[in-house]
Design brief:
- The chain has helices at residues 10-34, 62-68.
- The chain is an all-alpha fold.
- The protein is elongated and about 50 Å long.
- The relative contact order is 0.15.
């Protein structure tokens, strides 16, 4: 719809990019603080959805965070 009506979507695309890559920054931050001790690092994940009381996990980057934390 936006492209068909010539709306500028740079802000939306940039925010999507930030959201999609934030988990990588978080992992890098944890690894830089804990180094080789990352295998001993404990992390409590309290939720993976965007809003409370919503079970929709589409587009959540928490799953990527969980999968990539120990790599």
């Amino acid at each position: 719809y936006a492209k068909e009506n010539n709306f500028d979507t740079k802000f939306i695309l940039k925010s999507r990019s930030i959201n999609n890559n934030f988990y990588k920054e978080l992992i890098n931050n944890i690894k830089s603080k804990h180094g080789k001790e990352i295998k001993k690092f404990h992390c409590l994940i309290l939720g993976i959805t965007y809003k409370k009381n919503v079970s929709d996990i589409r587009n959540t980057q928490a799953i990527n965070f969980i999968r990539n934390l120990s790599k």
